[in-house]
Amino acid sequence: xxxxxxxxxxxxxxxxxxxxxxxxxxxxxxxxxxxxxxxxxxxxxxxxxxxxxxxxxxxxxxxxxxxxxxxxxxxxxxxxxxxxxxxxxxxxxxxxxxxxxxxxxxxxxxxxxxxxxxxxxxxxxxxxxxxxxxxxxxxxxxxxxxxxxxxxxxxxxxxxxxxxxxxxxxxxxxxxxxxxxxxxxxxxxxxxxxxxxxxxxxxxxxxxxxxxxxxxxxxxxxxxxxxxxxxxxxxxxxxxxxxxxxxxxxxxxxxxxxxxxxxxxxxxxxxxxxxxxxxxxxxxxxxxxxxxxxxxxxxxxxxxxxxxxxxxxxxxxxxxxxxxxxxxxxxxxxxxxxxxxxxxxxxxxxxxxxxxxxxxxxxxxxxxxxxxxxxxxxxxxxxxxxxxxxxxxxxxxxxxxxxxxxxxxxxxxxxxxxxxxxxx
Length: 424
Fold this sequence. Notes:
By secondary structure, the chain is of the alpha+beta class. The protein has a single domain (66-422), classed as Methylamine Dehydrogenase, Chain H, CATH 2.130.10. Helix content is 15%, strand content 35%. The chain is built from seven helices and 27 strands. A five-stranded antiparallel beta sheet has the order 2-25-24-23-22, with no helix packed on it. The longest helix is centred in the N-terminal third of the chain and has 27 residues, at 2-28. The radius of gyration is 23 Å and the shape is globular.
């Protein structure tokens, strides 16, 4: 009887220790927590997206479209902003899964940049399992692109040829500074929750500057209270939760706008940390925060300096069903909603998102996960809409869109003899 009780006690102790180990592993994110949780997510994702992962159909890039839709819907041609529309998206109808398309004001495709991720990162993930996100366009017809969950940032010429590429986990938006240099975020290799803020020479692809989010910004004196999110009281790498910051944008204040921001200076750096609902402007040299604001935006993207001294933000409003564009005065803290989604004009994306305030007051909007681009007037009226139609019920993701002047490209910059049929 004593042996039986001892055996039961032993089995109970083993079960209790296993349970306690599981609880502590999850609570403290101890090894192999990340491996196990990642494996569970991968299995769940494959069950839903097996066609994508087997290369049959890019379901991870597809979202249900509106019931009644056309590729182009020009509602008010007189109100349209003049210029060319550049759209980065899934492009399954072309010769690459991803691409950048140039449209005129009537919706005619003038040029197509194929983005072959498998050529940029041949030993990396399948193109179906990474996401074209950031891009910047140059007057000579070249573009710079990067990929969420990918392993490359690259400059590509007008014909799709690689001019240079950098290996590494570059992610979210790519921004071109007033001096021509490229800024982006990059995962650091030593621990995943930290990131490099990188400045890159657009001609050579060389790094000009690398800034550690944690070491150079957060751990500066008096800034932990602004940026710091710790699970415990000790400031050690193992004490951070996974993805506590989620940086998703950087923009440099140029001399053309700096007079409108007397509290800032030319070259100051604006960053967006999605997980903290935080937008901040840092001194270009010391990296001290000159201004910061938590909210009113919720899981925001794409803060932009505006010529009138305000900052506009793409407010995703995660899981609230309607995104909006917010304008805030950094001096007074006063803010207003410039546009919010409605039943009449749906405007919502859980993730990603980009906006451009145009010279005539209109807004160019990219609610990425709806696979659409739309321009709306200051009164909130729809001017035109583009839908990246994949099939009868679904749209392909549109990463971002921008409007450039009609004379933006140098003469002959978009000439590609092998693809004259696309207007190149």
